[in-house]
Amino acid sequence: MLTEIDFLDVVRLTPLVAIDLIVSDAEGRVLIGHRRNRPARGTWFVPGGRILKDETLDRAFTRIADAELGIGRLTRSTARFEGVFEHHYKDNFAAEPDVSTHYIVLAYGLQFTSTISVGRLDQHSDYLWLTPSELLARADVHENTKAYFR
């Protein structure tokens, strides 16, 4: 396990690899959460998280789905791969000046047959279900989330 100082060096020197979950319901609405953590704190964003060292993609997907959505044992094979995206942020998890954050993001779409109660309030302060057009029209939805619907 990295110390906070070591992880800050990683963020300063390398891109991070992450998985974002584009969760939609039967009505075509997308789940977004109001971020508690840096980077992108205070904006609406799709759920997601970084892949840990030596973690397989399948294990990372299941862990992130549980941590972000509260859905245990969800497998990557149930999702649709949407592509690779890059996210750049001027800030970082520690609010350290002059240290940007760069993510390489593997985006996966999940389609639920109904609107389900998902989310963990330790990761996001609130959740919303919005249509892609509603999401694109809002100034408080992060541009990196909007990129999935353009």
UniProtKB/TrEMBL annotation:
Annotated Nudix hydrolase domain residues: 12-150
Motif placement: Nudix box: 49-70
The name of this protein is Colanic acid biosynthesis protein WcaH
PANTHER family registered for this protein in UniProt: GDP-MANNOSE MANNOSYL HYDROLASE
Q: Does the keyword Isomerase apply?
A: no
Instruction: Enumerate the UniProt keywords alphabetically.
Output: Hydrolase, Magnesium, Metal-binding
Q: Cross-referenced PROSITE patterns, in alphabetical order?
A: NUDIX
